[in-house]
Amino acid sequence: MELPKSKQKCYNCKHAGRQFKIAGKTHLHCEHPKWDKKFKEHPESFSGWDTLREWWDRCDDFEAKK
């Protein structure tokens, strides 16, 4: 069963990392496998900022948690 678009947000994604607060807002890191590949190919131009998301963000790589 696919979630409605309104629920396809980072906090419902199977690639979501642990949530934490920054300046009172909830954030998480995207742990999608594509980031491992990008890090291995270009570690000098990769940082944690690349995977940082707010919990309500949305992307094309969404996969629902099981």
Identify the quaternary structure here: single chain
Cα Rg: 13 Å
Kindly name the structural category. Answer: alpha+beta
How does the major sheet shape up?
Answer: 3 strands, antiparallel
Biggest sheet strand line-up:
1-2-3
Annotation field: number of helices: 1
How much of the polypeptide forms β-strand, as a percent range? 15-25%
Return the domain count. Answer: 1
- Tally of extended strands? 3
Low-pLDDT residue intervals, each spanning 5 or more residues: none
Measured as a percent range, the helix fraction is 10-25%
The average pLDDT value, as a whole number, equals 92
What string gives the helices and strands in order? EEHE
Distance between the termini: 10 Å
**Large-scale geometry:** flat
Describe this structure in words.
- The structure is a single chain.
- The chain is α+β, with helices and mostly antiparallel strands and 66 residues long.
- The protein has one domain (5-54).
- The protein has one helix at 33-41; strands spanning 20-22, 25-29, 52-54.
Which terms summarize this structure?
single chain, 66 residues, alpha+beta, 1 helix, flat
Short overview:
With 66 residues, the protein is α+β, with helices and mostly antiparallel strands. The protein has one domain. The chain has 1 helix and 3 strands, in the order ββαβ.
Task: Furnish the topology, listing elements before pairings.
Blueprint: E1 20-22, E2 25-29, H1 33-41, E3 52-54
Antiparallel strand pairs: 1-2, 2-3
